[in-house]
Amino acid sequence: MIKVFEKIKDIRAFVESAKREGKSVGFVPTMGYLHEGHLSLVRCARSENDVVVVSIFVNPTQFGPSEDYKDYPRDMERDISLLENEKVHAVFAPDVKEMYPEETLTTIHVEKLTEHLCGAKRKGHFDGVCLVVSKLFNIVNPDRAYFGKKDYQQYRVIERMVRDLNFPISVVPCPIIREEDGLAASSRNIYLSEKERKDATCLYKSLRLADKLIKNGEYNTKRIIDAMKEFIMGFESVRKIDYIEIVDKYTLEPVSEIKGRELIALAVYVGKARLIDNMEVQI
Predict the structure, then answer these.
(1) Which of 40, 30, 37, 90 is nearest to 62 (CA)?
(2) CATH number of 187-276
(3) Residues with active-site annotation
(4) C-beta neighbour count of 143 within 10 angstroms
């Protein structure tokens, strides 16, 4: 039977008890409204740990003033049912007052890795992510934490924060999970109308276009990006392209030429939904 904890002291006591018994703890932090991408992280955690803890918390500090914090989809009952089916041991589902009982005066900022991609477009976003993840790590104290590569920049930022701050935690990246038509699994896909949902496949199709160009010998990143932009803007539901960038997958710095260690990443507004996707370059 899955255990659901809303208080920090209770989830801490649960994890401490498990660790006293010599059990390893895997942790999957989420904002809820779970989909197959989240569940793939859970399954990976189950395969590598004795105990799995999932957090469900829509974190206000990582949303900008004009973003969708209030509208972000929530369905705790559904999420708990899905996690129970996956044999998760415990869920930590605090409210905002539990996580932020007073004004927070501490900021965690990872430099360089946050200067491009979503970090450039969503100012302060990764400061909010790093703050809440560091709090969750201190609360849950897992051995391993699992992050999906759909949010590739987030994974790299968290990985670096863990290294810089000496958290005794292994950060485990997991592959992007896609629908049959290639659309990356996302909680925000619920915002899409039927037409928008069909057009949203343009993100993945543009990545495949880039892959084809590279395999045919096109290594100039500007020409690859221009081709992707032209392709995407041919879809009626696309409101705007937030960015398309080709960066070094370790430093996340933009590059002018493909050499085989790059990430192609994009963010596109389809209807009211801001969708992201990426592909690691293979040559």
Answers:
(1) 30
(2) 3.30.1300.10
(3) 38
(4) 17
Total count of residues recorded for the chain: 283
pTM of the model: 0.97
Q: What is the distance between the alpha carbons of residues 23 and 152, in angstroms, rounded to a whole number?
A: 29
Show me where the domains of the chain are located: 3-174, 187-276
Residue 60 CB coordination number (10 Å): 14
Q: Which tens digits make up the pLDDT trace of 99-124?
A: 999 999 999 999 999 999 999 999 99
Give dist(CA 248, CA 266) in Å, integer: 14
Tokens of 148: 């999906």
Structure tokens at 15: 């994890």
Tokens 């659309």 label which residue? 183
End-to-end CA distance of the chain: 47
Architecture per CATH, 3-174: 3-Layer(aba) Sandwich (3.40)
